Amino acid sequence: MLTAFALSAFATSPLKHKYNFNIKGLHDTKCYLGFYYGDKSYVLDSSSVDMKGNFEFHGDSILPGGVYFILLKDKKYFEFIIDKEQHFAMSTDSTDFIKHMHVQGSPENELFYNYLNFAAAQYASVQKMQDAAKTPEQKKAAHMKMDSLNTAVKKYKDDFIAKHPTLFLAKIFKAAEYPDIPEAPKLANGRKDSSFTYHYYKAHFFDNIDFNDDRMVHTPSQVFFDHIKEYLSRLTFQIPDSINAAADYILSKCRKSPDMFKFLVNYISYEYESSNIMGMDAVFVHMVKTYYTPNVATWESASHIEKMQDRATQLAPILIGQPAIPIVLPDTSNVMREMYAIHARYTILYFWDYDCGLCQKETPKLIKWYDSIKGQGIEVYAVEINENDITKWKDYIKLHKLDWINVADIFHTSNFRHDYDVISTPMIYVLDEQKVIIAKKIDVNDLNGVLKHDMAKNSGKK
Looking at the domain 328-461, which fold is it? Predict the structure, then answer.
């Protein structure tokens, strides 16, 4: 029960936030105040626990609304809501945080724990049935019981939302729900519209999320973030143009929510800048050009915005679908070889280093592949990036019989490293007959698949 320790939470104090806690069975240790941000959780503060299990967190600023948690050293934790009430107290027992929780000064957290106790009691009973189920009939009964309990919990949430529509907890309950899909209508031919489910689900996917509420960012991932991830990765065609349109649509919904807008701009930009899926850097370029400007990304410093813009400007000319930047370099006989002068159905632009360990593994693979497709209108333009010892480069070519076009920046006149973002080797770009980039930064083992796909795509256009 709450005792004298709790009363201090409501004493006159200049502190903007003050949360008192007592955990029976806990003493002489530390606890941590944590919060959620998108799909991550962070520790905000720490507090020492006295011999009676008392500890508190306080400060001279109002904490943003959202779901927070108290984390113990043994990784156990319990959650609570911080919103308008910035002074309250909670007490519980280390044997069962939910069952023994008492709240003072925060009606919303009282309601939150009423729900948690209801849900815990419901699922504890079905868990016993599932654990004891041995026969098919018992397992079926346990499954039916689980369905019944899920229905009961959903009704609890629906009733709560109707009764407390202005509470943040009601928004949390609502946001965690996915849209119910009605029966598909029939087409003129009498058959059901097979595409209806997808289009309806996508169109109504965000109906239950309030994009004008920054508090949604500070919730466990299943409440808000998982919806964003699913929309971008499963409900959107995985091509840059479609993802760009989806990102713009999502961001248009939260322009009035500074924290949510900031989070989503940063998340989407980084997600596709670091993506392992070829071509997704086009999404990063779109995000930077559209949102990383002084008037939009007001949370960023001018220097960071400039850095992001420079990076996007560098990547834009080498996106898939762009014409390759011309390269003219001397070969082993100091004859200038122009990449655009190559007459081939496909040109493999290969950046490598004779002294690179990974290149020494990949180059023989490329040689074997090249030898297998000779005479099929495919050429390799191999750019050696190490000009420290030209003799070693030439010796490697002779020893391994690299009879494709071999060039190097012997006279240090080219900017190909910057132009093609060559920060590591080996690196492969695939160019079509017009020297348009159709693939980049792929492995030798991917070449056959890339060329087969492009040939099939082009044959369908004829």
Answer: Glutaredoxin (3.40.30)
